[in-house]
């Protein structure tokens, strides 16, 4: 397997102020010196912008420890072609890691335009920029890595979900855009020999995560005395994956692009791959809520005598949701020796401690 040494590379990370993107950048600064990272984010108001600013501040603090490395942040939208062209012309990235996307299943029902703009037009702009990075004999982009999602599996009844499974029946626009990303990347890999890898993330959580995710939203509601809704009457399972495990997996994958090979027809065999990246251990939603409650009490976010039962309501499944997500990660384990190391209690404990400090409870 071909490997890329990250030292001295220039890496473009989109969605740099996002949950996964910011943690990936921090991890890259820790593991490769020197390294040059260009971050793009439009800091939209899908959720509290102060959280995104906090993540950027964490990066700015971290770079002080690594003076040999460089960090450049550009506030902009990947759907703006001129910004992408500017970045590729002036910085010539060796690797592109695309985390910029409009996330969320339920939000795609009420705000579909945001998904078309970011997840399709923005994604296309990046592919076109990668394509033209090879113009005039330039070395160009060595690997294009992008975030897909477990949502592409739709209402797949076979578990665990395997990358060999058909994913032709999305149950939300968000899922449809992510499947479209995989198809677009495959076409560009075939036509222009761009090494690309898609990663289907499974329910990523941790400190400074997205407030629209269940664990964060539940905490906010419990703290304000609101009732939390547990969908499908609690009969849901999620493959919760801690953020540190995710960014370690991405680091392994980004260093190993699919090999460029010419086929019998004289044309490139698409240097293209897709992997599941998850915890490989689905947890029942009611068990998850129980552990979250315990850790919130332990961190003194909520009092010992909090009436949880009075603030829980079991409700029917939401449109676009699925009852279970469960990742078969055996290809990632076999090819990259990837193994998630963070248990649910440990991960939620770190989140609860961070929440207490961030919101000064």
CA-based gyration radius: 20 Å
Number of helices: 11
CATH architecture name of one domain:
3-Layer(aba) Sandwich
CATH fold category name of one domain: Rossmann fold
Strand order of the largest sheet: 3-2-1-4-5-6-13
End-to-end Cα distance, whole Å, is: 49 Å
Shape: globular
Q: Which CATH first-tier class of one domain would you pick?
A: Alpha Beta
Keywords: NAD
InterPro entries: Epimerase_deHydtase, NAD(P)-bd_dom_sf
Organism: Hungatella effluvii
Protein name: Nucleoside-diphosphate-sugar epimerase
Describe what this molecule looks like in 3D.
By secondary structure, the protein is of the alpha/beta class. The protein has a domain at 10-203 and 243-278 and 326-341: NAD(P)-binding Rossmann-like Domain (Rossmann fold, 3-Layer(aba) Sandwich). 40% of the residues lie in helices and 16% in strands. The protein contains 11 helices and 15 strands. The strands form 5 sheets. The chain has a 7-stranded parallel beta sheet with strand order 3-2-1-4-5-6-13, with helices on both faces. Strands 7-10 form a two-stranded parallel sheet. The N and C termini lie far apart (49 Å). The mean pLDDT is 94. It comes from Hungatella effluvii. This is Nucleoside-diphosphate-sugar epimerase. Keywords: NAD. Residues 11-264 form the NAD-dependent epimerase/dehydratase domain.
Structure at a glance:
This protein is α/β, with parallel strands linked by helices and 361 residues long. The chain has a domain at 10-203 and 243-278 and 326-341: NAD(P)-binding Rossmann-like Domain (Rossmann fold, 3-Layer(aba) Sandwich).
């Amino acid at each position: 397997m071909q490997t890329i040494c990250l030292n001295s590379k220039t890496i473009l990370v989109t969605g740099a102020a996002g949950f996964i993107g910011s943690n990936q950048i921090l991890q890259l600064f820790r593991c490769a010196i020197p390294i040059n990272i260009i971050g793009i984010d439009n800091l939209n108001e899908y959720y509290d912008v102060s959280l995104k600013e906090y993540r950027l501040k964490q990066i700015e603090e971290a770079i002080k420890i690594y003076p040999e490395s460089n960090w450049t942040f550009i506030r902009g939208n990947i759907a703006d072609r001129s910004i992408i062209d500017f970045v590729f012309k002036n910085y010539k990235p060796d690797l592109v890691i695309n985390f910029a996307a409009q996330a969320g299943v339920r939000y795609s029902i009420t705000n579909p335009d945001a998904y078309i703009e970011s997840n399709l037009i923005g994604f296309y702009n990046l592919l076109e920029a990668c394509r033209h990075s090879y113009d005039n004999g330039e070395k160009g982009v060595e690997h294009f890595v992008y975030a897909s999602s477990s949502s592409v599996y739709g209402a797949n009844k076979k578990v665990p979900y395997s990358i060999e499974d058909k994913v032709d029946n999305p149950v939300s626009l968000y899922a449809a855009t992510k499947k479209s990303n995989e198809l677009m990347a495959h076409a560009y890999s075939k036509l222009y020999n761009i090494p690309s890898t898609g990663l289907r993330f499974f329910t990523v959580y941790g400190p400074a995560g997205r407030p629209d995710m269940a664990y964060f939203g539940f905490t906010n509601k419990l703290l304000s005395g609101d009732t939390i809704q547990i969908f499908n009457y609690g009969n849901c399972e999620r493959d919760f994956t801690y953020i540190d495990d995710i960014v370690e997996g991405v680091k392994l994958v980004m260093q190993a692009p699919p090999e460029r090979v010419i086929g019998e027809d004289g044309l490139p065999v698409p240097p293209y791959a897709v992997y599941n990246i998850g915890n490989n251990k689905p947890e029942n939603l009611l068990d998850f809520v129980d552990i979250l409650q315990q850790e919130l009490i332990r961190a003194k976010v909520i009092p010992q005598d909090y009436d949880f039962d009075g603030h829980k309501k079991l409700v029917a499944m939401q449109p676009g949701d699925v009852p279970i997500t469960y990742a078969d990660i055996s290809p990632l384990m076999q090819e990259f020796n990837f193994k998630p190391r963070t248990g649910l209690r440990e991960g939620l404990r770190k989140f609860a401690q961070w929440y207490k400090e961030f919101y000064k409870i």
